Amino acid sequence: PHTPSWRPSSSVRRATTTSTTRSCRRILTSWVTKTSLWMTSTGCWPRPNLGLLVADSGLARVQQRPQVIDDFFRNFLMKFGMQRSLEAFQGEWYELQQSGQFKDSELEIVPDIYTRNHGLHQEVVLLREELDKARQVAGKAKDSWDKFRKERDFHRTHHRRVAQEKNKLIVDLKRLKKHYEQYEPTLTELRHKYEVSMKEKMLMRLERDRFLAKSASMQKQLAQLQMDSNEDDLNSKGLAENSKNKSPHQAPWPSEDRTNPYVNSSFEAARVSDLKKTQQFKGHNGAISRIAFHPKIPVVATACDDHTWKMWSMPEGQLVLSGEGHTDWVSGVAFHPRGSLVATTSGDSTVKIWDVAKERCKHTLTDHCQPTWACAFHDLGDFLVTSSMDQTAKAFDLQTMKCRQTFRGHVDSVNFVAFQPSSSTVLTASGDKTVSLWDLRTGLCVQTFYGHANACNQAVFSMQGDSVASCDSDGIVKLWDVRVVSEYLQIDTGQHPANACSFDRSGKVLAIASGDASIKTFNIDERAFIANLEGHEDSVQDVAFEPNSNKYLVSASSDATFAMWQ
């Protein structure tokens, strides 16, 4: 701080101190005279009455007391930092006051106008500070408003763009919808043309076959006329040979001395514990009742309740061939050992033989009088056996297309039929709860297995030919030893029917198609279940191992699909 140039003497300081003391005494005396007593519960106390508290309608309000003139000047000089002027004023003021030049009447309070000006000045300062703060707030608000306005403009522009894109998409969708609506009649027309062309193709094929037959007969007639015109060259031997050539030969019965090439063979058991569903194909519009593997190539045939049978390439599941001709559900399908023919059984009581190469029905067998259930080719390819609801099984000669043998003995529907590998023994499973073995040549029953308590749905041989597995509607699967003609194992699969079963190449693993929409695999040597394969949505109707490698398993179900497990 700045040191003042003038400093009062000691006498002046003493006089100043004395004057200050007197002023304080005067103020205190004035305060005492203006006090009043107020009563409390404890006694009387002096109550200040300096004009600070004024009663107004029962409410207290604060009133500011005016300043004296010397305090006003001091405050004024201190306010503007005039320290030297303040010290000069103090010294001169106290000197004049001690010398008695000031009278009490002259030391009045500051006029009200100055006090008001001072108060107004303070108020102006406060208002300016508030104005600055308000300006800052207004500036921030303006910045925020500008920011919000820009965001609003951006979002408004974005909304307009989105609305335009939406309208454009709506227009495009309407145009595409209108465009695609024109496709439906076009597709219907093309489908109709395709169906008509296919019918015409079939009719042309039939016409071609008929013309070929007529041409062949005409050639035979011409040859006969030439032979008749040349009577000198004909003799009785030639006539006999000619008449003999007109009728086809019957196929000879299979010999008994054939041996099964797989009797002493051992194969690795299928690893069914690692099987998982890799493919599932919806190939029909109804329940698939039977599947069969092609003997040479990876092709599977399926028979369905939608009156059709189809061939599929594996493992892609591509449709190879579709057969239509039955008038009722198709219950069974089987491949010829050479793979050139397919036989199907149906609820229309017929058995049809199809030529795969020519893609047509070669012959229809109508010997059964009730629906047929299953069929099987002999391993030499000369005979076909069928089973029917008329309680019989029949053997047909494929060269003459005539019935050569009828197996009678069951008292209920014959549900399944199969050949023993490399043998002339026929295996049948019947609704009369029995499984029987028949001699193809004599038509006699060789052996009957008893033990099932309900209808037998299927019976199959192992590849070695020494074991038979049969399943019934109670979910029971029985294994029979053909050599000793006895049961050696019974498998209970549960409350649902066991619809079909299949041996793997080793004959040690058995797969069972169950009515609970699962496939149960069983280890025959360990006599224990291996795995329960689940993936179908309805009852599994048939199951079969891939016959050449055991690499995968195929199942058919009532959910109109067949699945591949690998």
Describe, in plain words, how this protein is organized in 3D.
- There is one protein chain.
- Strands 5-32-31-30 form a 4-stranded antiparallel β-sheet, with no helix packed on it. Strands 6-7-8-9 form a 4-stranded antiparallel β-sheet, with no helix packed on it. The protein has a 4-stranded antiparallel β-sheet with strand order 10-11-12-13, with no helix packed on it.
- The longest helix has 70 residues.
- The radius of gyration is 59 Å and the shape is elongated.
- The protein contains 6 helices and 32 strands.
- The protein has 566 residues and is of the alpha+beta class.
- Helix 1 packs across helix 3 and helix 2 packs antiparallel against helix 3.
- The N terminus is likely disordered.
- Among the domains are: 101 residues, no CATH class; 294 residues, 7 Propeller (Methylamine Dehydrogenase, Chain H).
The oligomerization state is single chain
Beta-strand portion reads 25-35%
- Helix percent reads 25-40%
Low-confidence stretches: 1-57, 236-246
CATH superfamily of the domain at 272-565: YVTN repeat-like/Quinoprotein amine dehydrogenase
**Separation of termini?**
103 Å
Q: What overall geometry do the principal axes of the alpha carbons give?
A: elongated
The class by helix and strand makeup works out as alpha+beta
CATH class of the domain at 272-565: Mainly Beta
Number of helices: 6
What is the arithmetic mean of pLDDT? 83
Task: Tell me the major beta sheet.
Answer: 4 strands, antiparallel
- Give the beta-strand count: 32
Q: What is the CATH topology assignment of the domain at 272-565?
A: Methylamine Dehydrogenase, Chain H
Could you tell me the radius of gyration in angstroms? 59 Å
